[in-house]
Amino acid sequence: MDAERFLTDGVVRLRRFRADDPAIDFAVLWYQDREVLDGAGGLDEKPFDRTRIERMYRYLDTHAELYIIEVRDRAQWLPIGDVALAPHTTPIVIGHPGWRSRGIGTRVLALIIGRARELGYPAVWAKEIWAHNVRSQRLFERMGFRRVEEGVDDQGRSWYRYRLDL
Hints:
Blueprint: E1 6-8, E2 12-16, H1 23-30, H2 34-41, H3 50-63, E3 65-73, E4 76-85, E5 92-94, H4 104-118, E6 123-130, H5 134-142, E7 146-152, E8 158-165
Antiparallel strand pairs: 1-2, 2-3, 3-4, 4-5, 6-8, 7-8
């Protein structure tokens, strides 16, 4: 795999997703986790099965730059989540619970912001962050994003939209 397919700060590595990616096996575990599901789809989100994850990853890989988030664990890189960069959204999931609240999201978002600058994006967006997902709100606000919109989806769930002008 060539160097262009990685973004790294030495602690965190974002590896471009590939169709036969073994990280899908990890993702099946991540998307069973209640905290991940609450952040991804709201408080009533059902666990994702492998088929749904593969479909989601195919969509993101077609419409965005999809990365597997990896951290150095002993002598190897361990997949712990996923992130995508698209013109109007930046979904991020730290799927492995042991790596949450350890600064990984901040590092990931810094790498994604750098990549967006390279691509000439005028802004980076967090399309929908659920009102109950305070951890994500704090992450994006800490990185300089501004809350620019709020709304309620068709199921009555409140969300916020964030933007960082580049």
